[in-house]
Amino acid sequence: MIESGSFRDPTARVFYSGRRVLRGLSPDAAAVDEEARSSGLMEALVDRALFVDNRLVDDVEPPPGVPDAAIVESERIPVVSYPSEWSFSMLKDAALATLDANLVALEHGFILKDASGFNVAFDGTRPRILDVASLEPFGEKGIWTAYAQFCDHFLAPLLLEAHAGVAFQPVLAARTEGLGISDLGRLLRGRAGLRRGVLGHVRLRAAIERRAARMGTATRADVGRAELPKDAVTASIRKMRALVTRLESRATSTWSDYEAALPYSADGVDAKEAFVRAAAESATGGGVALDIGANAGRFTRILTEHFEHVIAVDNDPGAVDVLYRAARDGDWDGITPMVVDIMNPTPSHGWRGRERKAFLERVRPVFSTWLAVLHHLCLGTGIPLDEVVGLVYEVSDSAVVEFVDPGDPMARHISATRRSSLAPYTRERFEECATAEGTLLASAPAGEFRTLYHLTRR
Amino acid sequence: MLTPLFAYLDPGAGATILQIVLAGTAGVAAAAKIRMNRIKRRLGRAEETEVDAEPDKDGHLAE
What we know:
Distance between the termini of chain A: 31 Å
Strand content of chain A: 15-25%
Radius of gyration of chain B: 15 Å
CATH architecture of the largest domain in chain A: 3-Layer(aba) Sandwich
Helix content of chain B: 25-40%
Largest sheet of chain B: none
Number of strands of chain A: 17
CATH class of the largest domain in chain A: Alpha Beta
CATH topology of the largest domain in chain A: Rossmann fold
Structural class of chain B: mainly alpha
Oligomer: heterodimer
CATH superfamily of the largest domain in chain A: Vaccinia Virus protein VP39
Shape of chain A: globular
């Protein structure tokens, strides 16, 4: 099966054979790949965990239309996440991995021909470049061809959040080609326009773009042939690295604000842990589990004991960032954090509406947890219980759901300002919906107002 | 030496010029070359390069 999103580089197409991820290379691309391997570059990139592990194979016949001068197999990573599903630190680490891969490549006389955020995916908390065919020879002189793409996919969204305090995720979710530098320039007004990195990469760039648009074709062709010495390109990528390293998010996290305003009830946390552990144990071993509303990852870690991999999603980028940094710095294995709003999961997107896959198409868990989520969906946004239960069963066959009674302090807080009546939201109604399509395997109280259910689809 | 014949990404004129500008002294030679060609063309001493940009039979643009 050919990957529908891999048409941009005609010299390397991605296809699948069972669970194997493969790339068919054209004769030109195969020659470059051969040189990248013999020079020791590919090994260096894999050793430094910048590229996914990959090797040449000859036991697979590519589908018709796929170049076949060489076939490269890549290690399969548990889930491919997209830039709009990353927290600030994740986008920053992916940017640094892209820059570091370029620096390693330049040492070996190569460079990366593109710098798309979609080329990177998180293997747990480690950003790795998936497109192992993105190397191209550089020689002694050249230009960083992917500079503008790097700005659109990485630098601009990071600057937006660092200097304007605006979360980049919704922007990147809508714009799969990244945030254009000229649009960013209009968003960074006043003092933000004078910040580090903005003056050169945004203001000066915009002024030059305006002049470049008026240049004659002959001069543009000269610009297209311009070259810088390798040392100068290396220095500019190092400078970009220093700039990115110093960027910090200034967006506010709704969850951390919320938590400060109203202490999250620690009621029944131990009971909750025990229930989740028992349910995870009884779910068939292995596979991927999904923790919805993971927050700081307290229950995510329990799931890692029982599943090959756990995807921890939350709609608050600030909470995901806390979880990501804790997992990255604490060496928690087997967790991929993602910023996903289950109210509006990432749709399929891009060219012909299928270049980038929908979240629910990429993530097929065998087990999911919905802890302290229901009252937000039902009381906060008015989703009827049967709809929520329908989604639970669509996501995974087996799940743990926490029902939060309308009398719970947090539930009362959420619905305090609501005037109109909602679809029925009671424990009885929840049980009715859950048993219409499935079976309740277990239930237990967790504190005064909360009940845990382990349910399975029939 | 292998050449990047199949770079599918357009680096963009503005982004290229900015790289030359930000390179400082290392970019002087590249900037001078572009400027000199421009001046020469204005004085009518260099051939227009527009014709060179015609695609060949395979649809590739000449270097």
